[in-house]
Design brief:
- By secondary structure, the chain is an alpha/beta fold.
- It folds into two domains: 2-166, Leucine Aminopeptidase, subunit E, domain 1 (3-Layer(aba) Sandwich), CATH 3.40.220.10; 188-501, 3-Layer(aba) Sandwich (Aminopeptidase), CATH 3.40.630.10.
- The chain has 17 helices and 19 strands.
- It has an eight-stranded mixed beta sheet, with helices on both faces. Strands 1-6-5-2-4-3 form a six-stranded mixed beta sheet, with helices on both faces.
- Helix 3 crosses helix 4, helix 9 (236-242) runs antiparallel to helix 13 and helix 13 packs parallel to helix 16 (449-458).
- The longest helix has 29 residues, at 167-195.
- It is elongated and about 80 Å long.
Length: 504
């Protein structure tokens, strides 16, 4: 699908579907919608009254134009209350537009730019949000549905045009489209990885993805550590979890250096990379195991970010660090009660082999802080407890630097990715104590599980400012979450962190 901006009068647009809008409570449409209504002889007002169209958010009114204007059909989109309108609603409107266009078999769609009129939002921001909503709603993972994939071209929108008559505004809109496309491509890259079956995405395949991302890009460098090198680095926590699998483990280190100016800061992004988590010898139940291909969603988001960093070009140095392995049961697997020595020298008693993510992250986080970054942000499908606490639409956030937490929450409001802070209460640290090691990888039973995991990770970042994002609930959608997030991998964190990297 091509998304573009053109100097075009809405009433003169030749297309399969013309999209205009209306806020709730408006009796007489104005702006572009009013111009189309006038060209149609008041048809919008008449049909809105007959069909009781109220302009509530997401409400649609679709009708044939009967050749009164070049567009074959018109769709009026409800914007809801003007006071409640924001950029995420524009994303959702972009998603609604694409899905409705598919249903109507409309190949060519021309739309008004929602929010840039009486709502008074910046045209570039509006165009970026509309582009994101359209591209992300258009996403489907059809790699293994060959017959369905053949049908896609017959119903997919081929081009979406944002119409505007003001030339200076068009320049801003085109810039917004460009940024929206970059962000969306990063999210789609991450979604594809999360949706890929574990049989086709082993740790070595994540290495190949990292190689593809870095190849031919002077601003991105790659270093990969294999088992022998990891043994020399004393990464026995990470290697201990990998022992049960026939797949070789790897530590992946991507580094982006700004090509045009000296980096202002150094930011490390750490992604959990369990390409499959069976639970190990504390094996998961059948229902819990069937979706464990998603346990590398943190790594997928880091790779999604790096796949577009050369286009995004933040002014900071960015390190992407991933511990890629599988957690499998076998005769060589780590056992409950075993003690692993981490890269930091701290020893970890394995109270449960299914609390493996935090153990692999112990070494990847320690390796990250050894790079002397100004900040560390990790993304991990770490606990089922965070889903119990926050559900599937809100990411748990915690850390040792409140300014970072606050800034990420604010960026989440802009990108439509909801975050909720959980406290790293020091009184809970006692529950991670072990009688035979420095730490136990579980603590406190079922109470405060997400916080316990966060406190465990905190032990391995030293004094480096650090934030942990528990994406166990938000990395995968078992049903459509909203108008632009369909079932499957969500690519959570990609847009959030791309925005964040432009602010530090």
């Amino acid at each position: 699908m091509e998304i573009k901006a053109e100097k075009l009068n809405l009433a003169e647009a030749k297309c399969d579907l013309l999209v205009v809008n209306e806020f709730a409570g408006i009796k007489v449409p104005g702006g572009g919608t009013g111009a189309v209504d006038k060209a149609l002889g008041g048809m919008i007002r008449k049909l809105a009254q007959e069909e009781r169209f109220r302009g509530e958010f997401g409400e649609t009114l679709v009708f044939h134009t009967h050749e009164k204007i070049p567009a074959k059909k018109v769709m009026v989109l409800g914007l809801g209350k003007r006071d409640d309108f924001n950029l995420d609603k524009i994303r959702k409107l972009g998603g609604i537009t694409i899905k409705k266009a598919r249903d109507l078999k409309a190949k060519n769609v021309v739309t008004i730019l929602h929010g840039a009129g009486v709502a008074g939002l910046d045209p570039a921001d509006c165009a970026r949000s509309l582009t994101e909503g359209a591209m992300l709603a258009n996403y489907r993972f059809l790699k293994y549905r060959k017959q369905e994939a053949k049908k896609v071209d017959k119903v997919d929108v081929s081009d979406l045009t944002i119409a505007e008559i003001n030339a200076p505004k068009i320049k801003k809109i085109k810039k917004g489209i460009e940024l929206g496309e970059i962000e969306s491509r990063g999210v789609i890259y991450a979604r594809d990885l999360v949706n890929e079956p574990a049989f086709h995405l082993r740790p070595k395949d994540l290495v190949e993805k990292a190689k593809d991302i870095s190849q031919g890009k002077g601003s991105i460098k790659l270093k990969v550590y294999d088992r022998i090198e990891l043994e020399k680095m004393n990464a026995w926590a990470f290697l201990g979890i990998a022992m049960g699998s026939a797949s070789e483990p790897y530590l992946i280190h991507l580094k982006y250096i700004p090509p045009k100016a000296k980096a202002k800061k150094k930011i490390a992004l750490v992604g959990k990379g369990l390409t499959f988590d069976s639970g190990g010898l504390n094996i998961k139940p059948e229902k819990g195991m069937s979706e464990m291909k998603i346990d590398m969603a943190g790594a997928a988001s880091v790779l999604g970010i790096f796949s577009v960093l050369d286009k995004w070009q933040p002014s900071v140095e960015v390190h992407g660090i991933i511990g890629a392995c599988e957690n499998m049961p076998s005769g060589s697997a780590v056992r409950p009660g075993d003690i692993l020595t981490s890269m930091s020298g701290k020893t970890i008693e394995i109270g449960n082999t299914d609390a493996e993510g935090r153990v692999t992250m112990a070494d990847t986080l320690y390796y990250a802080q050894k790079q002397k970054p100004d900040q560390i942000i990790d993304l991990a499908t770490l606990t089922g407890a965070v889903i119990i606490a926050l559900g599937s639409n809100i990411t748990g956030i915690m850390g040792n630097e409140q300014k970072m937490v606050d800034k990420l929450i604010e960026q989440g409001k802009i990108t439509g990715e909801k975050l909720w802070q959980l406290p790293l209460d020091k009184d809970y640290e006692k529950q991670l104590e072990s009688k035979i090691a420095d730490l136990n990888n579980i603590g406190g039973g079922r109470s405060g599980g997400a916080i316990m995991a966060g406190l465990f990770l905190k032990e391995f970042v030293g004094k480096t400012p650090w934030v942990h994002l528990d994406i166990a609930g938000t990395s995968y959608a078992e049903k459509d979450i909203n108008e632009y997030t369909p079932i499957g991998g969500t690519g959570v964190g990609v847009r959030l962190l791309l925005h964040y990297l432009k602010t530090v």
